[in-house]
Automatic annotation (TrEMBL):
GO cellular component: membrane
Keyword field: Membrane, Transmembrane, Transmembrane helix
Protein name: Uncharacterized protein
Segments traversing the membrane: 20-50, 161-180, 200-220
Species name: Perkinsus olseni (Perkinsus atlanticus)
Family annotation (InterPro entries): CDP-OH_P_trans, CDP-OH_PTrfase_TM_dom
Amino acid sequence: MPPPLSKVLLYTPNLLGYSRIVAGLTAFMLGLDGVRFAMVNSLLILTDWLDGFLAVRLRQKSIFGATLDVVADIFLRSLLWFRFTLDVIATYWSLRFIFTAISLSIISLEWSCCVASQMTAAYTGRPWKGGQGQQSAAEGFTPTYSPFVKRVLDNGLKSPLGAWAVIGLYGTPVCGLLVATSPDGHAAAAVLPHWVLTSILLPFCITGRVIAFVAELAIIHSWMRLVVLMQDFDWAE
């Protein structure tokens, strides 16, 4: 018998998830400068592994907790992209429309992929990162990913390409914010040398974000196929 919802909501890993969201929003509302906000947000993102560790260690794994973990991650990244846009507008006013469109598109894509992955898992009983589920509400449906996307999602993103994509997801808005906040490199120098940030880390992270972009489109496309399949079943009945 599953535990009551009130108990699941108060699981230690879930409390950590709420705390990450509140702390990130608080840091944003306090108006910290871009470098400090990037560092605080990065620390909150790095605690992502902790809730998973606690869930296993305390035997408090739950579907709600797994979903909350994803929501917290995307929420923190959305704050980074939003802050990045504000700093770009302040520094490069002539480019405000381009960077606003880029940031909003990325935020929308990440939330859309979140919905697609969670709905696919709910309908098929299969984890969106791959693997076998315990039951299937859409029997016979199998996501069709290209060999490249399969390599990205292999072993739950624990592959070289998967790790690169994850680094790109988190690293691109952080590096972008550091560059936007400190175009001359002085403010960000306390964190990283400017040439390392702009010549090595930022290109590396952007490439990883492109890899993640390809995987996100594949996940959304797979979900769209599933929606059409389920709709066909409804009409057939």
